[in-house]
Amino acid sequence: MLDKAVPATTMAPSLGLPAQSAKSHGSLDADIIIKNAPDPVFVSDLEGKILSANDAVYELLGFRTDEVLEQSLSRFISPEETREFTAALREVIERGVIRNTRLNPRSASGEVIPTSLNASALRDADGKVIGAIGILRDMREYEKVVRDLEESKAELQEKILDLEKFEEVVVGRELKMIALEKEIEGLKRVMDKANRGQNR
User: Fold this and answer.
1) Which three-class secondary structure state does DSSP give residue 28?
2) Could you give the angle at the alpha carbon of 81 between the alpha carbons of 110 and 55, nearest 5°?
3) Domains in the chain: boundaries
4) I want to staple 26 with a disulfide (CB 3.0 to 4.6 A). Which of 12, 49, 80, 193 is the partner?
5) CA 166 – CA 153 distance, rounded (Å)
């Protein structure tokens, strides 16, 4: 599958094997790595056309193989994200790698799926960058946890505010009770003085 994107001889040097003798072996190893990767993995050219993808990509997006291969990534993401992905490809050419780029591809059912993209450069035998190998990470569970934490935080803040209001009410009542007790004590002293005066 991967040898559609890159001739097998270009993969051999990275495997540490003689290019000629490792021709089929290098292609097979790369294909197996991509196919069995737990996360969605794809290979694209420098224009963003998808040349190869593993089963996890099809499971994530819900498309058939023929609906993904040879298609531009722009088919699955928004125009704005297409521009960002193009910029990311330029960064791959310059730096050889990009990390944690957010992409939100739209699945066959229309669901927008939050993902994080890590990509590294794919080079030919002369070291020239000819494409990128991208790994997508499904961020739906992560974002759900973040939302749940934010909701819990909001609920906690609301309970704290309710508690503060309750404390204000309780403290206010206590202050009123103290003030009332002082008034009663004052009245008692006045009455005691009056009674002592009458007794004289």
Assistant:
1) helix
2) 55
3) 2-138, 141-200
4) 12
5) 20
In the chain, where does DSSP find H-type helix?
8-15, 23-36, 55-61, 65-68, 79-95, 140-199
The per-residue pLDDT for 113 is 94
DSSP 65-118: HHHHTT-BGGGTS-HHHHHHHHHHHHHHHHHSEEEEEEE--B-TTS-B--EEEE
CATH match for 2-138 among 3.30.450.20, 3.90.1150.10, 2.40.30.10, 3.30.2010.30: 3.30.450.20
Tens digits of residue pLDDT in 38-73: 899 999 998 889 999 999 999 999 999 999 999 999
**Residue corresponding to tokens 């994107």:** 5
**CA separation, residue 132 to residues 33, 66, 102, 121, 175 (Å):** 15, 20, 16, 5, 71
d(C-alpha 166, C-alpha 164), whole Å:
5
Structure tokens, 33: 């790595």
The pLDDT value given to residue 198: 65
What amino acid occupies position 116? S
pTM: 0.61
**Residue 163, both tokens:** 């508690």
Phi, psi for 111 (deg, rounded to 5): -70, 135
